[in-house]
Amino acid sequence: GAGKMTYQAPYVSNTLPLAVLRELKITPDFTPERRRAMTDVHIETHSKTVLQMSRRFWEADNLSGWGRSDWPSEIWHQTHNQRGSQRGLLHVYLKKRASLEVSALTPELRIRHMLQHVDRMFPGARLHFEGGVSQAWPEDRWARGAYCHPKPGQKIRCLPQFVPPIGRMHFAG
Predict the structure, then answer these.
(1) How distant, in Å, are the alpha carbons of 23, 36, 101, 110, 122 from that of 106?
(2) pTM value?
(3) Which residues, at least 6 apart from 37, have a Cβ–Cβ distance to it below 8 Å?
């Protein structure tokens, strides 16, 4: 919201995600090979939702709180080694097309949708649900994706383009 900004620096340690870096005007510009690699390398579109439960109800059924389904999702029991509280956090991690579909929803609808998904895998989730938060990396203007995950051939072709610095700009992350 600050509008166009210009910075000059003697050295830059660049840790911007590629999806953001692609859209910035850098002077001097990247080499054509690096610009092509920045455009071509695949960026995953994951999202996550964390659901807080009043108690770890799944443990009564000798379930771990960890799971995978036929939907491209993983459920992680984030509080598995936390002592002193009966509350539990279930982290639902969505990948690929499922993430894109759910990312299009508002955060509140994502939470409700993920609660229904968790309730199918761990019946009783709705009864113990207290609240949740959701993050959709494709919708985050400062990330625009989860992380780089090169497709076949891209490690050899694209990733070497990010190793050498460009003048005084070094790349990390």
Answers:
(1) 25, 33, 11, 6, 24
(2) 0.76
(3) 157, 158, 159, 161, 162
For residue 141, count CB atoms less than 10 angstroms from its CB and return exposed for 0-12, middle for 13-18, buried for 19 or more.
exposed
**pLDDT digits 0-9 by tens, 97-129:** 888 888 889 999 999 999 999 999 999 999 999
- d(CA 50, CA 131) in angstroms, rounded, equals 9
For strands 169-171 and 12-14, give the pairing.
parallel
Instruction: Please name the residue that has the structure tokens 């509080």.
Output: 79
Q: Tell me what the mean pLDDT of segment 154-160 comes to.
A: 85
**19 vs 23: CA distance, rounded Å:** 7
